[in-house]
Amino acid sequence: MYNREGSDKPLSSPIDKGIFEDEALQLIWETREKGEVKLEDVIKELGNRSAIEEMERDGLIKIKEEKVYFAEEGEKRARDITRRHRLAERLFVDVLDLTEFESDACKIEHAISTEVEEAICTFLGHPPSCPHGKPIPRGRCCATYTQKVRPLVQRVTDITVGKLARVVFIAGTIMERLSSIGLVPGAIIKLQQKSPSYIIGIEEMTIAIDEEMARGIFVRVI
């Protein structure tokens, strides 16, 4: 989150101002998901009244009767930053198997482009919610996915029996266990069955793994 030291002082650079605005807009978005947004709560959380009032002058928010509302541009920007943050959280949890991820998600949300955001969303299969259960705002790529295509990269648990697929990524600690039998990124596998266990063919071998392990193997159907 934004560094609140020196609260109520003018922000020293355009970068500082941009980061503060992003954090404020995200806070307002998340607060609005629960109910009304009180100005005093936003100031208490972010600590810089003058910067918040400047956001109103810049046309990002509206303040009326000590409550905060989005202006059109502010709502769009809040939606985008919230989407990037929650997608980053999903990436850290689902793919990197991290348990501490909030700080890094706050950092990456300011850095990724629209193209990278859509690539992450497609890679993850257009998840509907973040690890905390909060909805991820839909993007342009999600509409395309719903109408036309499946995600490029899927978990082994999501592909059809009989399909050939190339391993793209193996999450968490299972990579070391699987690499000894040749199941590594780049390997071609064939899913032979899903129940009672997952049977995967790789070269001249077949291996049986449980569902938890299968969910950690990300593949691209070929």
3D structure, described in words:
- There is one protein chain.
- With 222 residues, this protein is an alpha+beta fold.
- It has three domains: 14-70; 75-144, Winged helix-like DNA-binding domain superfamily/Winged helix DNA-binding domain (Arc Repressor Mutant, subunit A, Orthogonal Bundle), CATH 1.10.10.10; 153-221, Ferrous iron transport protein A (FeoA) (SH3 type barrels, Roll).
- 43% of the residues lie in helices and 17% in strands.
- It has helices at 14-32, 39-46, 49-57, 72-95, 102-108, 114-123, 140-147, 174-179, 211-215, and strands at residues 61-64, 67-70, 154-155, 164-170, 188-193, 198-202, 205-209, 217-221.
- The chain has a six-stranded antiparallel beta sheet. A two-stranded antiparallel sheet has the order 1-2.
- The model is unreliable at 1-6 (pLDDT under 50).
List keywords for this structure.
222 residues; alpha+beta; Arc Repressor Mutant, subunit A; SH3 type barrels; two-stranded antiparallel sheet; 8 strands; 43% helix; disordered N terminus
